[in-house]
Structure formats: C-alpha cells, structure tokens
Amino acid sequence: MRARSRVRFGASLAAAAVLASVLMPTTTATATARRSAPRTAVLDGRRLLETKLRLDRGDPRLKRSVRGLTKRADAWIDQGPWTVVDKPKPAPGGDVHDYLSQAPYWWPTRIPTADNPWGCPYEQRDGQRNPEVDTGTDRQDVEKVFDSAYDLTLAWYYTGKKRYAEKAASVLRTWFLDPATKMNPNLDHAQFIPCKYEGRAIGVIDFSQSYTSVVDAIAILGTGAPGWSKNDRSAMEKWNKEFLGWLVDSDFGKQESAAQNNHGTFYDMQVAALAYATGDTALARRTVLDARARRIDPQIAGDGSQPQELARTRSWHYSTFDLVAYTRLAAIGRRVGVDLWSHQGPDGQSLFKAVDYLLPAATGAAKWPHPELEFHRFAASDVVHAAADAGDPAARKAVPELETPPGGDLWALRPAAEQLDSIAG
Q1: Whole-structure pTM value
Q2: Which long-range contacts (CB under 8 A, 24 or more apart) does 125-133 make?
Q3: What distance in Å separates the CA atoms of residue 152 and residue 215, rounded to the nearest whole number?
Q4: What 3-state DSSP class applies to 189?
C-alpha cells in the first residue's frame, strides 16, 4: 500500500464538466470517463475528475505522479489474472471456489511428519508472520487482485490507455465473475488454523483492509472503461450485494462487527462502502453514525492514543493501520452527509487527536515510545495527509516532514489513506 501527495479541490464540478467538454472529444469511452465523476465510495469522485482536468491542462506535479502510477500499472500487465480455484488444496468442505487463508501469527510446535503433516498443535506468536501462510492459500493472490485492479484502473482513468482498463477488467472477471474461476461471496475459511479452526471471524480483515479499493475501482471503470461491460457491472454489483449480505448476517460477520480494535473499524468501513456502492445509503449512513460512540469513543483515548493497538508488539503499525480504516470511513461519511472528523467523545476523543498523537514519530521529531518490532516512519504518511486535508493545522504543518513510502507519493492522484507497510493480519 502507498502514500500520495496533497492536492486541493479546483473548480466546481459544473465548471469542470464545461471545461471537459471543450478540452476533450465526446465520442470515446475515455471522454465519457473524463466528463463523469465516478460514484466512488471512499475516493471523492468529483476530486478525481478535477485532478484529471488539471492533469490534462499540463500540471507538472501531477504528470510526475502519473509516471509513478503507470510504472506500477505496467508491472501488472504481464501478471495474472489470478483465481481462487488455483490453490493446491481446497478449503475445508472441498469447494475450490471458497476463499482460503491461514492465520499469519500462528506457528507449528512440532516437526511435520506423515502422521502430523502440519506440525500441530499451533501456537500464537503475535506480530511474527509465519511464512507458510503465503503458500498454499489464496491470501497472496487476492492481494494481487486488489492492488492490480486499483493501480490499473487509476492508470486508465488518468491516461486513457485502454490496455490498463482491459487488464483490470480481466483481473476482476477472473476472480469474481467467470463461472469456472469465480470466488464464492463469503469468507467462511479465512485465517484458518491447521488442526484447530476451519475458519475464523478474524479472517474478515483479509478483505476489509483492502477491498474498498476494489469497490472504488469498479466505480471508476463504470464511467466507460473499455473491456468492462454493462453485464460486468451488473454481475459485480450482484456479487457485492451477496457479499454484503454475508458480512451482515453471518456469524463470522457479526463477531467481527463486535470486535473492539482495528478489526471492528475495518469491518464498519467495508460494510459502509459496500452499502453505499450497492445503493443502501441508509445502511452506509447508519454505520458511519454509529462509529462515533461505538468505535471512536471506546477505542481512542483522550490523549489520542489507541490503547488496544498500543498493546500489540507492533504498536506503530497497528496504530496507523486502525487510522487507515477510520480516515477511509470518514471519507465514506462525506458521501452520506456525516462529518466523522468533527466528532468529539466525552473525554475529547477524536480522529484529529489520534492522528496528532502520531506526528512526532511520523515527522522524525521523536522516537515512537511503544513496542514495535519493525518501525517504518512512512506508515503514517497517508493518515497524516488525510487529517491535513480534513483541516488539522498540526497535520498540515507536518506534511512536508513526512517520509515518502516505497514506490513514491501518489496522494494527489488518489487521496484516500491506505496501509503503507506490508504486514497483514
């Protein structure tokens, strides 16, 4: 995941549309995309359109950012598409269309044998990722689906080059839509633990931490991308509605909803985005509104710290990670008329305070004072950008001091916080 530089709103949407009609032809799918603001859930579609128009007028800073974006998109062109049916062994139950992943922080305690091929029983080592979770399951492939679809779609939107859209469409159809290769819309077997659990509610985060980027990519492709048909749009909306139903109604979904750390925050963010994208604005709005007393008040302390995340061996990672979910949820709130940034809890809890708590370490002014196995200063860059854009004076002052993440700063092209360090779980 990655960071991006800031960009302010330009002309109004009406002015942007007029300018677009002058600058660009009206007969191509690309022209349609340039004139239409995508109905994105996390990203602001109007802001994307205004950024596109600035790019078309030759903004040199945006041109540099686009070069970084297309470099990533080009790297995906010859990869994939990936499918859930390719794993060596099916998920418990035998359906190859069911998604399967393994708990990242659980390790075998014995040497595998013919009678005990997994090396059971497994034990937990918090923050220490077991490398075997990246082989034999769908975890790595689904991350490639999420990242490639997003990068390729944004590259198409800003350049108009159809190869990017066509590749993104192929990736999405293969994983989600084609009958022979599609994934069933559930996470019944996510983050299983060999010889212990066939799946766990905690595995919902395999999707919730990144799938909202796919939701936005689908909205952007829907503005007229070559290779992404009306049937594709309808089938993807159907899949998302079924997946949202599973999230809301399944036992695993309900358990994840009750989580009182980053898992609960990401769950809300995913539900709100899917609800908005599939037309259930009431559910999206209710989810964001409830997050004030249900998430912010109990999860953020009066000084801005996040006690549940500070208790982890990777406290910096999880503090920034949780704020990725919060800032993206706040962005969805704007789509449904809720200002989550302005909320203050009974002890002064707020998203602004939570971001400000990170600023000394994010800018390099002070050492992070809590346990962290692998500190990356750049992990906070996106959430600081988000707070700065939302009006936080301290965050605005900190932006020039942020560390650029690997792959460059692309905030100007997609101003929504993402997880910037690589650990998952």
Answers
A1: 0.88
A2: 126/312, 126/313, 127/312, 127/313, 127/314, 127/373, 128/373, 129/104, 129/105, 129/423, 129/424, 129/425, 130/102, 130/103, 130/104, 130/105, 130/106, 132/102, 133/101, 133/102, 133/103, 133/104
A3: 14
A4: strand
Residue 88 φ/ψ, nearest 5 degrees: -60, -35
Separation CA 139–CA 133 (nearest Å)? 8
Note the pLDDT tens digit of each residue in 88-123.
888 888 899 999 999 988 999 999 888 888 899 999
**Among the listed ranges 5-9, 51-55, 166-170, 285-289, which one has the minimum average pLDDT value?**
5-9
Question: What is the share, in percent, of the chain residues with pLDDT greater than 90?
Answer: 82
**% residues pLDDT > 70 (the chain):** 91
In order of 66, 131, 186, 323, 405, the CA distances from 420 in angstroms are 19, 20, 26, 12, 7
HSE toward the beta carbon, residue 221, CA cutoff 13 A? 34
